[in-house]
Amino acid sequence: MSVAKKEYKRITTKTLVDMKKRGEKISMLTAYDYTMAKIVDGAGIDVILVGDSASNVMAGHETTLPITLDQMIYHAASVIRGVERSLVVVDIPFGSYQSDPKEALRSAIRIMKESGGHAVKVEGGKEIKESVKRILNAGIPVMGHLGLTPQSIYKFGTYTVRAKHEEEADKLKEDALLLEKAGCFAIVLEKVPAKLAEEVAKSLTIPIIGIGAGGGVDGQVLVTHDMLGMTHEFNPRFLRRYLDMYAEMTNAFKAYSIDVKKGDFPNDDEQY
Fold this sequence. Notes:
Elements: H1 13-22, E1 26-30, H2 34-42, E2 47-50, H3 54-57, H4 69-80, E3 87-91, H5 101-115, E4 119-121, H6 129-137, E5 142-147, H7 153-156, H8 166-182, E6 186-190, H9 194-203, E7 208-211, E8 219-222, H10 224-227, H11 245-261
Parallel strand pairs: 1-2, 1-8, 2-3, 3-4, 4-5, 5-6, 6-7, 7-8
Helix pairs in contact: 2-4, 4-5, 5-6
C-alpha cells in the first residue's frame, strides 16, 4: 500500500530512497525539451528522464542507437532550464560507456557539466560494472536499467518480455544486487514479469522503477508522448493513454488551416 504523498520542495536521490522506505510510490516521465519539462515538473512528477528514447520520439529513428552524446546533452540542458522540483536523470547513449570505463566517466562528466543534469542512467549489469564504479567514484549518481535494455535490441532481436526463464531471471536478480552494492540509487526494470519485478523490489533497499514490470515495484515510468497519445502506432500492454493528443492536435491543425484559408483568422480582435 502506498502512503499519502509527502510534499518535497526538491527531489534528490536521497528523497527517492526515503520515499521507498515510506511506501510512497515514485512517478517518472520523460521530457526532451524546455516546454514539456516545465509542464511535467509543474504537475509534480518526481523524476524526469531525458531518455535516449528521444532518438525515436524526437528524431524518428527506429531504435535508440543513433542518438549521440552531444544530442543528449542538448536535450538535457533544455529540460534542466524548465525544472524546479523534479530530479532530472539523463541517459548516457549507446557507445558512450560500454567498452571503456574511462570513456564512461568522460561521458558522464560531460552530461553533468554541460547540461546541469542531476544523475545519469546506464543499461546493463555485470558487463558494465567497471563503468558504473568509475562514474560513481567521481561522485555522479547512477540509475541502472535492467530487463529489456533497448540499447541491446540487436542482441536480443526482439522487444518481447525479458527474464521469463529461470536462468535469465537469476541473472537479472544478480545484476540488480550488483548495481545496488556498487552504489546505484535506483534501477529501472523494463518489460519483465510482474512477480519477478516485485521480488527484486522487495529484496533491495534502493527504489525499483517499472515500465511494463507490474505494480509491485516502487514507482512507474512512461514515455510522455506515449501516455499523452501523441504517438498512436505504439500499443504495448503496459501503456495507459491518459489523452488522445494525436487526434486533438490533428483536429486543431485542421481547424486552423480551414480558418486561414477562408480568411477567418485573424479576425478584428486578433490584429493590431
